[in-house]
Design a protein that fits this description.
Bound molecules: flavin-adenine dinucleotide
Oligomer: single chain
CATH class of one domain: Alpha Beta
Mean pLDDT: 95
CATH topology of one domain: FAD/NAD(P)-binding domain
CATH architecture of one domain: 3-Layer(bba) Sandwich
Helix content: 25-40%
Number of helices: 11
Low-confidence stretches: none
Distance between the termini: 55 Å
Largest sheet: 8 strands, mixed
Shape: globular
């Protein structure tokens, strides 16, 4: 069987769905091939920062969001102290976050793309790209044991951390860039509506402070999502057993959470976080890479859903323009826009995570920060990448200054 469309998309996660939604809204024929049947489990903390909330609103899901579990900011626990840090009130970003299990979130966002006119084939695994004189002109997908040929003017790879399709397009992650590793589980807990993203910064292995954090996010359905994440900038990260780290973290939580191995309701599930623009360039003849496939997770906080939505929509805008005006099959403008939008911030992020890869430094920075709510509020704005276009206050001016600083040679 064969199909012909304007744009064919590998994967129906945040980046694939966001691209499909925008392209369908602009009247193009779009096909999303998703290897799983939805709803499906997805290993994630389920946390949506103001950046993600903003794009979900832009995709027309505003009414839906009003029914989801809301958080007002970050409650940080470290060095024996707790600080409540509400999200800043800014011109460009909402001042709240949300928690929505990915099992439901991804279905809702992909349904939204389908309602806008995109075609979605579930249980359809993309296996190989098709090239014509060096230009990617589609792919072969497997569905019900049969091969399906999909021809397209453009292919978007939104396969997440799977890497197989990106590799066959000749794109691999730069292993010198930082990577995250994280594991999560659901627990029944009376704190299901805690109103905060809870972050625990004292994560230790063999008495060393690790660059990473433990989280407990309130899901609002009687459960919380609790997990722990670690950065590869720490020299001994390969020796850390994530499941043991998670056990230690869960065991250290205060009793009021009632989060323990009697209240657990799922197995630990882990995954890799490709961060800091580590797959470059994320374009080539006839194709673009989005979200995790492009290594677009924010290295400062491990957030990738918003960046999946944003890069999916950015890719869609470039393809839309090419389809309407005709242009070369290599959309380098997409990579240029990615670099312009995220380059300075991600450079800052890469330096930051390198710095905190030194356990002693990490410990010092945390204990210093926990003595000042002003410092930690600034850190939240910075780590969640909440920069306004106009620098209207000291915090926002500081943000711009830090990005400029990161541009200097080390
Ligand atoms: C433990 C953990 C916790 C995290 N917590 C958070 C968090 O709280 N907040 C946050 O913002 N980010 C979090 N992240 C990161 C976030 O999950 C990702 O950044 C995000 O899912 C990226 O979206 P994506 O669309 O690029 O890829 P994905 O969400 O991975 O979607 C890719 C889709 O493609 C499909 N697919 C893959 N290969 C093929 C193929 N060959 N053919 C067809 N379909 C295919 C997959 O089934 C999947 O549905 C976390 C990650 C981990 C591992």
């Amino acid at each position: 069987m064969s199909t012909e469309v304007d744009v064919a998309i590998v994967g129906g996660g945040p980046s694939g769905a966001a691209a499909a939604h925008l392209l369908a809204t602009r009247g193009h024929s779009v096909l999303v091939c998703e290897k799983k049947a939805f709803p499906r489990e997805k290993t994630c903390g389920d946390g949506l920062t103001p950046r993600a909330v903003k794009v979900l609103e832009e995709m027309g899901l505003g009414d839906e969001l009003a029914t989801w579990e809301r958080v007002e900011g970050l409650r940080v626990h470290a060095a024996g102290k707790t600080l409540e840090l509400p999200f800043p009130k800014l011109g460009d970003w909402p001042d709240y976050g949300l928690v929505k299990p990915r099992k439901d979130l991804d279905r809702i966002v992909l349904d939204n793309a389908e309602a806008a006119g995109a075609k979605v084939l579930y249980k359809t695994q993309v296996v190989d790209p098709i090239f014509d004189r060096g230009v990617c002109t589609g792919f072969v997908a497997k569905r019900d044991g049969e091969n399906e040929t999909v021809s397209a003017k453009w292919v978007i790879c939104g396969e997440g951390a799977a890497t197989k399709f990106s590799r066959s397009l000749g794109r691999v992650r730069d292993v010198d860039y930082p990577m995250g590793l994280a594991v999560r589980q659901y627990f029944r807990s009376p704190m299901e509506h805690s109103g905060w993203f809870e972050a625990y910064l004292d994560i230790r292995s063999a008495d060393e402070s690790l660059p990473g954090y433990g989280w407990v996010f309130p899901v609002g359905d009687g459960t919380v999502n609790a997990g722990v994440g670690l950065l590869s900038t720490f020299g001994g990260w390969r020796d850390v057993n994530l499941n043991n780290l998670q056990r230690g973290f869960i065991g250290s939580l205060p009793p009021e959470w009632d989060v323990n191995y009697d209240t657990v309701c799922s197995r630990p599930r882990g995954g890799r976080l490709f961060m800091g623009q580590s797959v470059w360039p994320p374009h080539g003849p006839g194709f673009l890479l989005t979200g995790d496939a492009a290594g677009m997770i924010n290295p400062c906080n491990g957030e990738g859903i918003a960046y999946g939505y944003e890069t999916g929509r950015m890719a869609a805008r470039h393809i839309d323009e090419a389809l309407r005006n005709g242009s070369s099959p290599s959309l380098s403008g997409y990579s240029e826009e990615l670099m312009e939008t995220y380059g300075p911030y991600y450079r800052l992020g890469r330096r930051f995570v390198k710095l905190i890869g030194y356990p002693v430094l990490m410990e010092k920075l945390v204990s210093m920060g926990m003595n000042s709510k002003t410092i930690m509020s600034f850190a939240l704005t910075l780590l969640a990448n909440l920069e306004d276009s106009a620098p209207h206050n000291a915090e926002q001016k500081g943000f711009k200054f830090m990005k400029k600083l990161a541009e200097l040679k080390p």
